Amino acid sequence: MLSGAGLVISVAGIRELGWMIGPVMLALMLVVAVSPVQGWMLRRGLPRWLATIAVILILYAVLLTLVGILGVSVAQLAGLLPGYSDQAGQLLTAVQDQLGRWGVGSAQINDFVGQIDLGRVTDILTTVLSSLTSTASTLFFLLATLLFLGMDAVGFPERLARISGDRPAVVVALQSFARGTRRYLVVSSFFGAICSVLDVVALTWLTVPLPVLWGVLAFITNYIPNVGFFVGLVPPALLALLDGGWREMVAVIIAYMVINVLIQTVIQPKFVGDVVGLSVTVTFLATAFWAWALGPLGALLAIPLTLLVKALLIDVDPGSHWIDTLIGSGTGTVRAVPGVVAASGRAADADTDDARADAADAGPVADLPRRVRPAEGATP
Prior knowledge:
The protein has helices at 2-16, 18-43, 48-80, 85-101, 106-114, 119-130, 132-153, 156-163, 168-205, 211-221, 228-244, 246-276, 280-294, 296-300, 302-315, 321-327, 345-356. By secondary structure, the protein is an all-alpha fold. The protein has a domain at 166-332.
């Protein structure tokens, strides 16, 4: 009961501080993603300040480019939607007539129509545009966090090396989190880019307005496990309905199902499950929880956040590794407890070999992949 009460309090605190935790975790994920570039530059003998500046410039370029594309596209969408008010009214009248032919009473139809206020679209857009000040503040906080995390990242491997003697399992868990996050981002970005390009081509061929915006939206929502496809489909499908009618909307839905369902539902989950070691049910529940706790940003960061919690609460505790087996994807090799007592020498060796493939990215702790060496003079 005490553990459950502590969990409730912790979750309430996370939800209350979501405005800060979300941007910080996004910045951490981005820094972890580009940290191999920093390690590569240091191994080539380049100065630390140059490696730090290069990483920060890469992070800023990626983030500001994405924000710029979304900002311009949303502004275009805000100016485009009011022109579809007549089409929306005609569609609403057609739906009303069809419901009448199906025997729905006029009172129910009037109640249904009365609940639909087309003017609310303009109100929603006005609210979104008026909230740009808050968005700008969040962006400034994110950019500042990226700057400081990028500056600290260059010395982080040395910090891990210093604590490896006292807390070897913590070092291994953090390395596992970084490795799993990078692999997840690579896989998701690769498949997301393929879906995005194909979606833009299909929407351009169908003459749906703002195909680039919907392509960027498809790329971003690809990071949302399980439900990202539906989030990325609804806006272009509705715009196609207003622009070209039911046939164009059905064509957009078919195109998305052929492209996105095949890639995101059939192909991508196999690779994601292998690289993160989480079952489909766990990823779905994690997405729902983090979206509730942190909002839309939590849905985007659901997998990295779950990997971090798993690393800090499960991987560091030898007595909790049975939980890892239950929530895992079931496709990996049974792992021994890293840095502690191995249940199987063969399993421990396999896990060490898997980590050694990424050890080059660890910089000064390249010699500490999974079985962390204790510091000299320390008790193993």
